[in-house]
């Protein structure tokens, strides 16, 4: 069965990834990006669309009369109206596990950098302060060992578990908030996690139960020097409340790789804290090492192959 396949936003996968693997399934068309007004034209009579961040649902899918399969090049699929797809017999597949090591790696890198005040210490050398001094070392700002600290993990899927393994290797006590508690970890409620954790990292999907999970009230519960890292979805936290807490010195630091609007404008709450020493803002890159992006595309190809063979692989709908 020869298909018509369209990649709608290849730029999100990087220009260094070869997408020719999809040509074995039929006619392939690739767009770097697709504006909302171009959606119907770009999709045309495609059997399969491959996308990352584009929102699809009843507002644009009725124009796609031939569409049979949507492949999202991500684990999260909150940009897809699953109910509409189910009602209209459109299969949906995601990709799981391809970026576990990457996201865990950035999470830990942010935590270590913030705990050790690497921004400040690097600047003390690069701006000449160290060279102009008379001491062999500079020990301010004061930093602390991670050993013995409590690391709270919100969401305990593949990424959360990998972060937990690294945190424990660093000597941290790990506590977990998980909708369905497990014997694999010390599970606590979200309020207890916010009160007791020195480091909080967020790895949960965005849904009605997790939207604004880390809200103003829970941020107020946190330790004054707590570090919050969000590599899940922007809307899981109250972004304005996070920014206010940083500006008012009610949080020790934040590391953020995801945003409720991507890219965010200069009017976004995080614009007010960008550039501060205790703030890391990265452009949704945690998932995207070269190796992970290759794995992601390979997984999409396997999903399409399974669909053609009548098998269900990574099927959401």
Give the terminus-to-terminus CA distance: 21 Å
Sheet with most strands: 6 strands, parallel
The DSSP helix count reads: 10
Structural Rg: 22 Å
> Uncertain spans, ≥5 residues at pLDDT below 50?
none
The CATH topology of the largest domain is given as Rossmann fold
Name given to the CATH architecture of the largest domain = 3-Layer(aba) Sandwich
CATH superfamily of the largest domain: NAD(P)-binding Rossmann-like Domain
What string, H for helix and E for strand, traces the elements in order? EEHEEHEHHHEHEHEHEHEEH
Q: Find the structural class using helix and strand composition.
A: alpha/beta
CATH class of the largest domain: Alpha Beta
User: What is the total tally of β strands?
Assistant: 11
Mean pLDDT: 97
Fraction of helical residues: 25-40%
The largest sheet has its strands arranged as 7-6-8-9-10-11
User: What is the total domain count?
Assistant: 2
Strand content: 5-15%
Structural overview:
The protein is 30% helix and 15% strand. It has 317 residues and is of the alpha/beta class. It has 2 domains: 3-98 and 290-308, Rossmann fold; 100-281, Rossmann fold (3-Layer(aba) Sandwich). The strands form 2 sheets. A 6-stranded parallel sheet has the order 7-6-8-9-10-11, sandwiched between helices. Strands 2-1-3-4-5 form a 5-stranded parallel sheet. The model has no long low-confidence stretch (mean pLDDT 97).
């Amino acid at each position: 069965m020869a298909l018509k396949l369209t990649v709608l936003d290849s730029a999100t996968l990087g220009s260094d990834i070869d997408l020719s693997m999809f040509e074995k399934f039929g006619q392939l068309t690739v767009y770097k990006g697709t504006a909302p007004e171009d959606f119907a034209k770009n999709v045309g009579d495609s059997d399969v669309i491959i996308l990352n961040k584009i929102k699809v649902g009843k507002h644009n899918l009725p124009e796609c009369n031939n569409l049979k399969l949507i492949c999202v090049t991500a684990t999260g699929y909150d940009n897809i109206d699953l109910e509409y797809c189910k009602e209209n017999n459109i299969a949906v597949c995601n990709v799981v596990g391809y970026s576990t090591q990457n996201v865990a790696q950035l999470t830990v890198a942010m935590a270590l950098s913030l705990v050790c005040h690497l921004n400040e210490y690097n600047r003390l050398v690069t701006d000449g302060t160290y060279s102009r001094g008379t001491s062999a070392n500079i020990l301010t700002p004061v930093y602390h060992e991670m050993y013995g600290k409590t690391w709270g993990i919100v969401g305990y899927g593949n990424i959360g578990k990998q972060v937990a393994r690294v945190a424990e290797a660093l000597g941290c006590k790990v506590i977990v908030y998980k909708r369905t508690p497990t014997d694999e970890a010390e599970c606590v409620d979200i309020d207890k996690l916010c009160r007791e954790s020195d480091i909080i990292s967020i790895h949960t999907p965005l849904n009605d139960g997790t939207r604004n999970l880390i809200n103003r009230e829970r941020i107020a519960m946190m330790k004054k020097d707590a570090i919050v890292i969000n590599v899940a979805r922007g809307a899981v936290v109250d972004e304005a409340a996070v920014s206010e807490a940083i500006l008012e010195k009610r949080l020790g630091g934040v590391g953020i790789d995801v945003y409720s609007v991507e890219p965010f404008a200069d009017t976004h709450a995080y614009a007010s804290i960008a550039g501060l020493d205790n703030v890391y803002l990265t452009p949704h890159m945690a998932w995207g090492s070269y190796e992970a992006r290759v794995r992601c595309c390979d997984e999409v190809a396997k999903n399409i192959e399974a669909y053609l063979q009548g098998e269900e692989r990574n099927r959401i709908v």
